[in-house]
């Protein structure tokens, strides 16, 4: 499978995701773009003491602005590192799976799971 086919499959997978996961991916992208903007000198107040921030400072400022833990933002950034922006959403989309519980029938009672 070539890179174009991989990219297509990635976007097809993303298109099938529920709306709440897509919203989370979009939020994560916005936070990363905020940090990227600080690094490029955008989004900073006029009276800010520097014209742009280095990567570490931009990630910290984005964490301060959003109330997120800076480690969370770094994890999101690691997911998209090396990928073009058009591929960010699928990589930032949460991959939550529910475990399948194989409980013995003796554990199941009338009002729920024991």
Topology at a glance:
Layout: H1 3-15, H2 19-40, H3 55-66, H4 70-80, H5 88-92, E1 108-109, E2 112-113
Antiparallel strand pairs: 1-2
Helix pairs in contact: 2-3
The CA-CA distance between the termini, in Å, is: 47 Å
Please give the largest β-sheet: 2 strands, antiparallel
Q: What helical percentage do the residues reach?
A: 55-70%
Q: Count of helices?
A: 5
Uncertain spans: 98-114
Mean pLDDT across the residues is: 82
Order of helices and strands: HHHHHEE
For the biggest β-sheet, the strand order reads 1-2
Question: What's the number of extended β-strand segments?
Answer: 2
Shape: elongated
- Nearest-angstrom radius of gyration? 20 Å
Measured by DSSP, the beta-strand proportion falls in under 5%
Assign the structural class, choosing from mainly alpha, mainly beta, alpha/beta, alpha+beta, or little secondary structure.
mainly alpha
Describe the fold and architecture.
The chain has 114 residues and is mainly alpha-helical. 55% of the residues lie in helices and 4% in strands. The chain contains 5 helices and 2 strands, in the order αααααββ. It has helices at 3-15, 19-40, 55-66, 70-80, 88-92, and strands at residues 108-109, 112-113. It has a two-stranded antiparallel ribbon.
Summarize the structure.
The protein has 114 residues and is mainly alpha-helical. It has five helices and two strands; from the N terminus they run αααααββ.
Keywords:
single chain; 114 residues; mainly alpha; two-stranded antiparallel sheet; 5 helices; 2 strands; disordered C terminus
């Amino acid at each position: 499978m070539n890179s174009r086919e991989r990219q297509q499959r990635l976007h097809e997978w993303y298109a099938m995701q529920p709306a709440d996961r897509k919203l989370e991916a979009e939020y994560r992208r916005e936070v990363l773009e905020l940090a990227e903007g600080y690094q490029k000198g955008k989004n900073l107040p006029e009276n800010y003491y520097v014209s742009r921030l280095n990567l570490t400072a931009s990630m910290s400022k984005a964490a301060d602005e959003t109330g997120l833990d800076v480690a969370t933002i770094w994890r999101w950034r690691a997911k998209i590192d090396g990928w073009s922006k058009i591929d960010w959403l699928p990589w930032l989309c949460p991959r939550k799976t529910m475990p399948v519980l194989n409980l013995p029938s003796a554990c199941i009672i009338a009002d729920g799971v024991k």
